[in-house]
Amino acid sequence: MTTSDPIADMLTRIRNANIAKHDTVDVPASKMKIAIAGILVDEGYISSYDLIEEGSFKTIRITMKYGSDKNVKIITGLKRISKPGLRVYAGKDDIPKVLGGLGIAILSTNHGIVTDKEARKLKVGGEVLAFVW
């Protein structure tokens, strides 16, 4: 089944795997999803991700991250901001802070997919894809 919003589908799969305390979750691959998974690894929200090729079909296998025991969740929230029906853009001076800087905003800029902190450092704005906290 094709989905009209693949980024929201990825975030929902991660959210559901986190709630069910799964070790891994598989997501159909794209360049943007790989970039988002890379940001989640760099920011410490997931352990790792691997690109699995099954014929011509590529899948991202995301390894979830939990605290000392599985009862402590690292990701407490994921929210898709810009949707296909309502795009949300932020200028370089209007980049949102998530929970006063405790979470991250993921932006699509002309420098690629970056976090809100990186976008402020580069002094660029862009489309606000998601909030993670």
Write the layout of secondary structure elements.
Elements: H1 6-19, E1 24-28, H2 31-42, E2 46-54, E3 57-64, E4 78-80, E5 89-90, E6 104-109, E7 112-115, H3 116-122, E8 126-132
Antiparallel strand pairs: 1-3, 2-3, 4-8, 5-8, 6-7, 6-8
Percent of residues in beta strands? 25-35%
Q: Taking Cα atoms only, what radius of gyration do you get, to the nearest Å?
A: 15 Å
What is the makeup of the main sheet? 5 strands, antiparallel
State the secondary-structure class.
alpha+beta
Return the string of H and E elements.
HEHEEEEEEHE
Tell me the overall shape. globular
Key terms:
alpha+beta, five-stranded antiparallel sheet, 133 residues
Summarize the structure.
The chain has 133 residues and is α+β, with helices and mostly antiparallel strands. The chain contains 3 helices and 8 strands, in the order H-E-H-E-E-E-E-E-E-H-E.
